[in-house]
Design goal:
By secondary structure, this protein is an alpha+beta fold. It contains 9 helices and 19 strands. It is 22% helix and 25% strand. It is globular, with a radius of gyration of 29 Å.
Length: 461
């Protein structure tokens, strides 16, 4: 793939709305182009799209000469109507999908006439013209559930009104000021001495350091955009799905009352730990497990009697950190290999591959593993075995099979033949795959949730 023009990429930031056009389908999504600058990209989605359709998406990052995009909406893909003479790139900033707050129960909508009368009392500089592209009309296409009020308005005047003049302060008659030799004034009598200029702190930062700080902030935003799309999955015995310690010597067990959660977070983040933390809180009847990659959470499962449904990773992480402040919480902490951890993280922060084939389990596993090898992908295979209601997870790192975890007996195996034997013994076995985008482990993205930031959000509740 040819290198991308850096001048064209300089205008794109994480979270920015872009219009892309479908080129062809790939496992887990579609290869697309951004017509505005003719840039290639990839859009992970399970929606059924056709070649040539234009889609509204969000920019995540660039890696290996291709742009990673995220679906604009979590429930469906935002298709743009093929309307002649309409350039959607010019209307991206006008699209606002945030629906207005619903009226209170005792509040009735204002009559149309009164709304028009109110608009006449608004000063001209506060009025605006609503620009509604054809596909954003309430009765058109996928936007039929979004009212016209969800479209941003463009003000008629670009400049805000001038602030009112401040009342003139009473001026005291100028007093001569003495100074210097023989009371000679070093400056005119009516002119006060110039105040010392306030130092600009940005000037003291070297340019390469400022660039590095901006790159780190952009990488953090890129992960935030990617992780903002909810990923739903239903798991039984959820905490058992995370691999137990392979190296028994790395296992640490303690009660949080003997330490505290701040110490734990410092230990994990400062040590850039890769592995797992499991917690059990008897007073809340909860169990939780956190998957870590270099000190950041790349997967989390939380379950308790009052909350039986599986929550997304970010919400589960906050619930787990809250439990870690309860004195009777027991904690287990251990290390795991990075290749297995990243493959496992695809189950939480990857994108699923939609199946539309008639392969049996063995044939599909051979096909998808061959595709992973050709692309160098990192992925997690979820293998269900109906004959004994068992589950096995297969791990693929950069295209290579690196192990399998049979959940029922909590055993980790490195040979693929073990998985093949499971498939032979159960003709109804099913294989599903989730892919971790290579961008997540590149310098363009700060992969994983920050534990300290999640703790601050809990404290700020």
């Amino acid at each position: 793939m040819s290198p991308l023009n850096p001048w064209k990429l300089s205008g794109y930031k994480a979270g920015q709305n872009v219009v892309c056009k479908v080129v062809k389908d790939e496992p887990g999504g579609y290869a697309v182009i951004i017509p505005k600058d003719n840039l290639p990209g990839f859009l992970p989605t399970q929606a059924l799209l056709r070649t040539g359709e234009e889609i509204l998406a969000q920019f995540v990052c660039v890696h290996n000469h291709r742009i990673l995009l995220s679906a604009r909406f979590s429930n469906n893909v935002s298709k743009l109507a093929a309307t002649p003479n309409v350039r959607w790139e010019e209307h991206l900033d006008e699209i606002d999908v945030a629906a207005p707050a619903p009226p209170q129960q005792n509040e009735e909508p204002a009559p149309r006439a009164s709304v028009e009368q109110q608009s006449q009392t608004i000063p001209p500089h506060q009025q605006g013209n609503v620009i509604v592209p054809p596909s954003t009309r309430p009765d058109d296409g996928m936007y039929k559930n979004y009212p016209a009020t969800s479209v941003k308005t463009l003000p008629v005047e670009s400049n805000p009104p001038a602030p009112p003049n401040r009342p003139a302060a009473a001026q005291a008659p100028p007093q001569p000021r003495g100074g210097g030799l023989n009371q000679a004034m070093p400056y005119p009598a009516n002119a006060p001495p110039a105040s010392d200029p306030v130092p600009n702190r940005l000037i003291s930062i070297p340019s390469n350091q400022a660039i590095q700080l901006e790159q780190e902030a952009e990488a953090e935003r890129a992960f935030g955009v990617w992780a903002s799309t909810p990923r739903k999955f239903h798991l039984k015995r959820a905490t058992d799905l995370i691999l137990p310690p392979i190296d028994k010597d790395s296992l640490e067990e303690f009660k949080i009352v003997d330490y505290d959660v701040e110490w734990l977070i410092t230990n994990l983040e400062g040590g850039m730990r890769t592995g797992c933390v499991k917690a059990a809180c008897e007073s809340k009847l909860s169990r939780s497990a956190m998957l870590l990659y270099r000190g950041r959470a790349v997967g989390c499962i939380y379950g308790c009697k009052s909350m039986p449904d599986t929550q997304p990773t970010e919400q589960s992480l906050q619930n787990m950190l809250a439990d870690l402040e309860v004195p009777d919480t027991d904690v287990k902490m251990y290390d795991l290999p990075e290749n297995v951890t990243l493959a496992m993280s695809a189950l939480f922060l990857g994108y699923p591959v939609q199946r539309n084939d008639d392969y049996d389990a063995r044939a599909y596993m051979d096909y998808i593993c061959g595709w992973f090898e050709s692309k160098g992908n990192t992925a997690c295979l979820a293998i269900t075995l109906p004959s004994n209601s068992a589950t096995c997870l297969g791990y693929v790192y950069k295209g290579q099979f690196c192990g399998a975890f049979y959940v029922e007996d909590q055993q980790f195996r490195t040979d693929k033949e073990f998985v093949y034997e499971l498939l032979r013994n159960d003709p109804r076995a099913n294989v599903e795959a989730s892919i971790l985008p290579p961008e997540m482990t590149s310098s363009a993205v700060r992969f994983g949730f920050s534990l300290s930031m999640a703790k601050k959000r809990i404290d700020g509740r």
